[in-house]
Amino acid sequence: MAIAIAIIACQSLQLPSKPLASTAVSIKLSGWGGSPVEQKLLRQVLREFEVQHPTIKVKYEVISDQYMDVIKTRLVGEAAPDVFYLDALEAPFLMSQNVLEPLESYITPEFDLTDFEDTLLDSFKYQNHIYGLPKDYSTLALFYNKKAFAAAGLSNPPATWDELRNYSKQLIGKLNKYGFGEIPELARQAYKIKAFGGQLIDQNGSATFASEAGLKGLELVVDQYQKDRSSAQKSDVGTNSGSEMFGQSKVAMVIEGNWAIPYLTETFPQVEFATAPVPTINGKKGTMVFTVAYVMNKQAQHKAEAWKLISYLTGKEGMQKWTGTGFALPTRKSVAKNLGYDQDALRSPLVAGVDYATSWQVGKYPSVIVNNFENQFVSALLGQQPLKQAMMKAQNEANQQIKAME
């Protein structure tokens, strides 16, 4: 796939001449499906864009299954959309394949690039080019059940991971079966690996999460699950997500993102909850940040019009409309300030976390890193093998697969 994309992307293309002003240009935008409310909101924002740009029509397509596989296949077949969503996790590979249009030449001073959070914008930079503009993001924060805390005599959320483990023991059976809901995916464990100086990958893209420093962070998770028996995975309690585990009161605490706020409010209105920063580990603040950008297909025939769409959706006006309902957090600092999310009782810990968050990126071959880690880490969590053995096995297997792909 990498070779095929690279070959096709390097072919020279004869772009058509710019259409007459009276001719309506059609731009295709592709993304994955969100909630019905989000879909309705985006379509509304796109209609407003078309009103302001009457010579541009946007054809919005939802790819509901195997999104990245579909996009990569279309890029090879020269049938990719003009503009599409790109998750930060998948960005390093596509940015390295010369299939995305660099955007810096389109960006004017009025667009105010400095308004974007640096952590988010940096996820879409590669070899001195900007390939995407982040449309929204979420960090992780601690969600806790206020009634369960009151029942256990706890007045404040835990500030450190040691406190979280202590609280978890006290919360067992206090309106909840377990104190804490653990999500063993690498996307929820990366900041723990980094808390003691560990890294997910090295500068060459090889997996390094099995280092002694990295194992220290993961040991906290295993010890809480096996020794304290105060945490549970979603499979232990028959739920599909951390948010559902928390909403069903199976656990009193869980670490989740902004998406959990509307979900819990709508689906479990009886649950009284609050949020707080992720507890510090080894004296260090830590969380994850997940972001998605709008990117332009390098083979798009109407690049000027595609840029107008991207610049509207990620400009101050479009972004405020898109993020104004709270379903997503704005990547522009000015929009976040206008909407008051930094003062919002539930969202302020999420907004504050972007300054010290670990970006969710693991090199050009994320599935190899993620799959090997998660298969072995879950095995260690369940006590089927020692943690160090599991992580070394995962790291070695990942690196063998990466070597074979390069």
From TrEMBL:
Q: Which family does it belong to?
A: Belongs to the bacterial solute-binding protein 1 family.
GO process terms (BP)? maltodextrin transmembrane transport; maltose transport
Q: Name one GO cellular component term.
A: ATP-binding cassette (ABC) transporter complex, substrate-binding subunit-containing
Gene Ontology MF annotations:
maltose binding
Quote the InterPro entries the UniProt record gives. SBP
* Family annotation (PANTHER family): MALTOSE-BINDING PERIPLASMIC PROTEIN, MALTOSE_MALTODEXTRIN-BINDING PERIPLASMIC PROTEIN
Record keywords: Signal, Transport
The major lineage groups are: Bacteria, Bacillati, Cyanobacteriota, Cyanophyceae, Nostocales
* Record's signal peptide: none
Asked if the Swiss-Prot or TrEMBL record annotates the protein with the keyword Transport, the reply is yes
Protein name, UniProt field: Extracellular solute-binding protein, family 1
